[in-house]
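Repro:
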Amino acid sequence: MISTVLNVAIDCEDAYGLASFWSAVTGRPIHPESEPGDEETLVEMAEGPTLYFNQVPEAKTVKNRIHLCLRPDTSREREVERLLGLGATFVADHRRPDGSGWAILADPEGNEFCVLRGEDDAPVH
């Protein structure tokens, strides 16, 4: 027996608003039946689990224990700039001079996520 990961649940203050940010990040649409003010909103990925945004009364107060890692279809630096333009904030820099590593950003509600080396970033041998 096994279990399949159906979705990644993200607690938030504004389910539709945060889903809109992640929809722009991933290029995937918000579920067509979702609308502003909904307490639950989905962004369905082309592959893998759905991003499920669940409105909760409490605000985020500590570092995430689980987070998303993104691999951009461009360079990591271009993607970091794009995400900052969408409303993300820069949290920490773990990029190394050899091109490896990652950048940690946070979405508009403070949930941390990583941006890994992108498809346009050549691996160093």
